[in-house]
Write a sequence for this structure.
């Protein structure tokens, strides 16, 4: 799903690239980690110019991957056949995969802690469990599913009724708060109340992961894995601030909130423009 090559072919290509870089030291591999929603993926669609520039970037020997609060089930179908990811930082750094989908790192939530969090939420806040088996939502007491399920973009979900029916390891939770003010207040409450958890606001959504996990944490682990001092990054919202702080150069958009623009080194109009600038460096 993540590469057009099998492992043996990928290793051969990687060795060839290493040899080429030794012969041409003026050319070095660059890596860009991109947020998904609002940066690469817009209301269920990719921009053709972004995809074209990503392919050009990779053909030049560079690497492109995702750094998102979404779980694997939330991006897999969308990128299938359209985008080759050299890595994926998922669930706000709680799960990191290589080009072939192999796990480089994972940090699971304690199930009782996850259930305690969901039980503490206001009834008007919808919540979804991100697990190793997919994304799940729990039926309400009246038997209905959360209203926000109808607006989930490219995230297939399954429904369960009792907590003991929830399968797999839990990497995080996604909360829907309807308004940005409510999302900000709820994220602050979670961070004050739960020492083991960390909440990140993403507009009207909140991404929750194990304390210590973040997009920035994922970037630092990826740097070690790739043996690189710097990785470039791009994101558009509040939960991308840890990503922007840990990458260089860091990009955001003219349309991003002012607090996000202040954290980025370069402000651009599109992901394609960021890639173009990165290839010029």
């Amino acid at each position: 799903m993540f590469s057009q090559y099998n492992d043996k072919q990928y290793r051969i290509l990687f060795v060839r690239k290493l040899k080429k870089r030794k012969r041409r030291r003026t050319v070095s591999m660059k890596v860009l980690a991109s947020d998904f929603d609002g940066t690469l993926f817009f209301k269920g669609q990719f921009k053709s110019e972004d995809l074209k520039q990503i392919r050009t970037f990779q053909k030049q020997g560079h690497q492109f991957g995702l750094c998102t609060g979404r779980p694997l089930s939330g991006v897999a179908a969308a990128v299938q056949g359209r985008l080759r990811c050299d890595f994926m930082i998922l669930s706000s750094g709680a799960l990191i995969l290589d080009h072939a989908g192999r796990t480089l790192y994972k940090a699971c939530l304690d199930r009782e802690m996850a259930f305690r969090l969901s039980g503490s939420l206001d009834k008007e806040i919808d919540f979804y469990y991100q697990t190793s088996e997919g994304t799940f939502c729990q039926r309400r007491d009246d038997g209905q599913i959360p209203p926000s399920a109808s607006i989930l973009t490219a995230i297939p979900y399954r429904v369960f009724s009792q907590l003991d029916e929830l399968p797999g390891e839990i990497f995080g939770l996604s909360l829907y708060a309807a308004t940005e003010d409510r999302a900000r207040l709820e994220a602050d409450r979670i961070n004050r109340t739960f020492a083991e958890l960390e909440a990140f606001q993403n507009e009207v959504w909140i991404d929750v992961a194990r304390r210590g996990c973040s997009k920035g944490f994922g970037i630092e682990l990826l740097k070690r894995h790739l043996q690189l001092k710097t990785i470039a990054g791009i994101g558009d919202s509040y939960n991308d601030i840890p990503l922007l702080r840990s990458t260089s150069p860091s990009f955001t958009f003219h349309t991003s909130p002012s607090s996000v623009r202040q954290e980025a080194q370069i402000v651009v109009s599109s992901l394609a423009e960021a890639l173009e600038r990165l290839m010029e460096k």
